[in-house]
């Protein structure tokens, strides 16, 4: 049986700092304050375990013990220079360190190499032996070489030893940071090595060999289910295992050699060809100061948090259809992301209030109060991380406590997608503080189609993307009619959709201002600012839709979108004869058609004309209804590919056979 992580970490901490006082060793704890510390182990966040561990280890220390604290990633998101000597080494500083750790925010990157360098510099002024205890739950993320630094420190002649605690690291990740300990005469200990840690703790405290003790039988903790699927191709993403595995004990992927100039496509092909591989990660040459490309393969049942980088840096990852493991829902870079905020009652100036939220729930996402029109992350008023307030269960939602501004007025409440490569506000709403909430002012707008479609009879609908608290959920004209739609909408962002009797579909996002005389032309299909190739394909209730790339046809249930459709292909080029697809519904519900690998614990499957349609997550009436609508409607017309061209004259648009030209 495994010992709880809090006990394991206590053992490791104590092993390194509970040395005899006569040794006169000055110890510096370097604490990981990165956002990944919000990841969970055995149903508890790592930061909670770390805080509890520090308290248990520091309280019994003698007052004469010289100890200090340095931290990184605890003050600012995405800043590799966020390193601080919080408590300089001093005798009797244990209580001060405990208070500092309890006050830390966990939000930034992992510049562990530079943190160790600064810790060594802070200890250099002493003439006594110095020890650094580095606690990290991740590898270096700030383009530095921890191994080179450790060798440099050892060569400098400083009486300096670094011990590294790998908190939930995989074997591969542990190897990347173990060199810090090895090159300075210290030890690397994974926090999961229960037997070794218990023995080492006993020897460190008593300075004598510990007697053999029968291992303590502690039942495994049942972990809350909150794992999500990704996509087969995720540019800019690096899957970072949390160290936790779930589901059946499946075999690991086969070992493989990866060329130094290998590509992401080659890495994906290796995983696709291996039935034991569920997910993969590609690291480009030059990343983490490694001069060659690397590929990592992971078995199904591996849990990940996702590090996100600008796509131009070359990181790519992928997860096979039906594979789950992400601790938060997947949102591609630049792809649409949805969130909602709901107040539970009136808000008084200067008082705390509760806001209910749902959204992507990434480690860096936050909810903030701002003045209307202010830049995001102004931090003028109260804010809270969603990861700090997420509730147990399989849906990304929670309740945050904020403090209202002291001055009465109308403010703005926002949900911010916090990751640095595409940081943006994805939801906002007015926040009345100490004033009566008034009904939204309505602006007259004119909705039209492009030229050539004026005669189409169309049913229109408008859905608010950032509604006022008392705004309607949607505005609709269910009866089809031709000509412009004259509507009254409250100022803000709206999604406009229209379905013609002929089956033609119109959709766009618009921004309505508080002004008269506004007109919007709604194009065919999906056109919207900020939406690229990964934009989801929308659908009205029961809307017929055919994916142009695969020929997959269906009727999309209300609130559901087709987010991905493709043909699975092996490294040898063998291609599936039926498409696979993923559908996303309200509140992050997921349906997968023909998943490549599917665990029974993921959810139930329903047979469709094209193969199994599987539900990820818990069942409810909404998902049952969606499956009942979608499954029987699935059909497939093979497409042979080729370039689209428009011939001369009035001939209809055609499609070229690959290798042929329009001449």
Per-chain topology:
Blueprint lengths: L4 H13 L8 E7 L7 E2 L2 E2 H13 L7 E7 L10 E9 L2 H10 L8 H13 L5 E7 L9 H10 L4 E7 L4 H12 L5 E3 L3 H13 L21 E2 L4 E2 L1 E9 L18 H10 L5 E5 L10 E5 L3 E7 L7 E4 L4 E3 L13 E4 L8 E7 L7 E5 L12 E3 L11 E7 L5 E9 L6 E10 L9 E6 L9 E7 L10 E7 L3 E5 L2 E9 L4 E8 L5 E4 L3 E3 L15 E4 L5 E5 L4 E6 L13 E5 L5 E4 L11 E4 L2 E6 L4 H10 L4 E2 L7 E2 L8 E2 L8
Helix pairs in contact: 1-2, 1-7, 2-3, 5-6
Task: Tell me about this structure.
By secondary structure, this protein is an alpha+beta fold. The chain folds into five domains: 5-206, Rossmann fold; 228-326, 3-Layer(bba) Sandwich (Hepatocyte Growth Factor), CATH 3.50.4; 340-433, Sandwich (Immunoglobulin-like), CATH 2.60.40; 443-527, Sandwich (Immunoglobulin-like), CATH 2.60.40.1120; 543-636, no CATH class. 16% of the residues lie in helices and 32% in strands. The protein has nine helices and 41 strands. The strands form twelve sheets. The chain has a six-stranded mixed β-sheet with strand order 5-4-1-6-7-8, with helices on both faces. A five-stranded mixed β-sheet has the order 26-25-28-29-31, with no helix packed on it. The chain has a five-stranded antiparallel β-sheet with strand order 34-35-36-38-37, with no helix packed on it. The longest helix is centred in the first third of the chain and has 13 residues, at 5-17. The radius of gyration is 28 Å and the shape is globular. The model is unreliable at 1-9, 18-23, 193-224, 526-541 and 640-663 (pLDDT under 50).
């Amino acid at each position: 049986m495994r010992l709880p992580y809090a006990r394991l970490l206590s053992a490791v901490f104590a092993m390194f700092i509970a040395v005899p006082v006569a040794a006169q060793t000055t110890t510096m704890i370097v604490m990981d304050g990165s956002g990944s510390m919000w990841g969970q182990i055995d149903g508890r966040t790592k930061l909670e375990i770390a805080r509890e561990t520090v308290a248990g280890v520091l309280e019994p220390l003698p007052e004469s013990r010289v100890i200090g604290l340095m931290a990184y990633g605890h003050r600012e998101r995405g800043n590799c220079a966020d390193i601080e000597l919080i408590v300089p080494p001093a005798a009797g500083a244990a209580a001060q360190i405990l208070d500092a750790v309890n006050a830390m925010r966990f939000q930034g990157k992992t510049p562990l190499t530079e943190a160790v360098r600064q810790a060594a510099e802070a200890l250099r002024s002493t003439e006594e032996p110095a020890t650094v205890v580095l606690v990290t739950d991740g590898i270096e993320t700030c383009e530095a070489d921890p191994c080179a630094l450790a060798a440099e420190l050892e060569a400098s002649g400083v009486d300096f030893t670094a011990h590294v605690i790998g908190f939930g690291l995989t074997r591969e990740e542990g190897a990347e940071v173990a060199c810090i300990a090895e090159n300075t005469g210290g030890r690397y200990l994974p926090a999961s090595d229960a037997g070794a840690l218990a023995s080492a703790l006993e020897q460190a405290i008593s300075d004598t060999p510990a007697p053999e003790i029968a291992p303590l039988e502690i039942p495994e903790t049942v972990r809350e289910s909150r794992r999500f699927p990704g996509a087969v191709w995720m540019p800019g993403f690096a899957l970072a295992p949390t160290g936790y595995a779930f589901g059946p004990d499946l075999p690991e992927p086969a070992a493989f050699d990866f060329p130094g100039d290998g590509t992401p496509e080659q890495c994906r092909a290796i995983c696709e060809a291996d039935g034991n591989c569920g997910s993969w990660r590609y690291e480009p040459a030059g990343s983490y100061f490694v001069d060659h490309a690397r590929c990592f393969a992971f078995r199904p049942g591996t849990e990940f948090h996702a590090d996100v980088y600008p796509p131009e840096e070359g990181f790519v990852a992928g997860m096979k259809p039906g594979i789950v493991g992400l601790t938060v829902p997947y949102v591609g870079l630049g792809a649409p992301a949805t969130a909602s905020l709901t107040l539970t009652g009136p808000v008084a100036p200067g008082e705390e209030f509760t806001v209910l939220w749902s959204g992507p729930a990434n480690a860096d996402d936050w909810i903030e109060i701002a003045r209307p029109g202010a830049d995001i992350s102004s931090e003028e008023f109260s804010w809270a991380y969603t990861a700090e307030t997420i509730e147990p269960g399989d849906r990304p939602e929670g309740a945050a406590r904020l403090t209202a501004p002291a001055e009465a007025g109308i403010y703005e409440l926002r949900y911010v997608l916090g990751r640095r490569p595409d940081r943006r506000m994805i939801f906002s709403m007015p926040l009345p503080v100490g004033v009566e909430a008034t009904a939204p002012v309505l602006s007259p707008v004119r909705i039209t189609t492009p030229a050539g479609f004026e005669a189409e009879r169309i049913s229109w609908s408008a859905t608010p993307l950032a509604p006022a608290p008392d705004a309607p959920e949607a505005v609709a004209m269910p009866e089809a009619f031709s000509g412009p739609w004259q509507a009254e909408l409250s100022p803000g962002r709206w999604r406009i959709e229209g379905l013609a009797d002929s089956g033609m579909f119109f959709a766009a996002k618009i921004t309505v201002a508080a002004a008269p005389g506004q007109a919007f032309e709604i194009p065919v299909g999906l056109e919207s600012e900020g939406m690229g190739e990964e934009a989801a394909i929308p659908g009205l209730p029961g809307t017929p839709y055919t994916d142009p790339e695969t020929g997959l046809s269906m009727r999309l249930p209300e609130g559901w979108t087709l987010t991905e459709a493709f043909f699975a292909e092996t490294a040898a080029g063998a291609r599936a004869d039926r498409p696979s697809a993923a559908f996303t519904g309200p509140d992050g519900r997921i349906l997968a058609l023909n998943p490549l690998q599917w665990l029974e614990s993921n959810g139930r499957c329903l047979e469709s004309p094209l193969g199994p349609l599987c539900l990820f997550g818990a069942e409810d009436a909404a998902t049952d209804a969606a499956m009942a609508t979608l499954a029987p409607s699935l059909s497939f017309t093979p497409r042979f590919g080729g370039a689209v061209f428009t011939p001369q004259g009035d001939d209809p648009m055609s499609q070229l056979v690959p290798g042929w030209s329009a001449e």
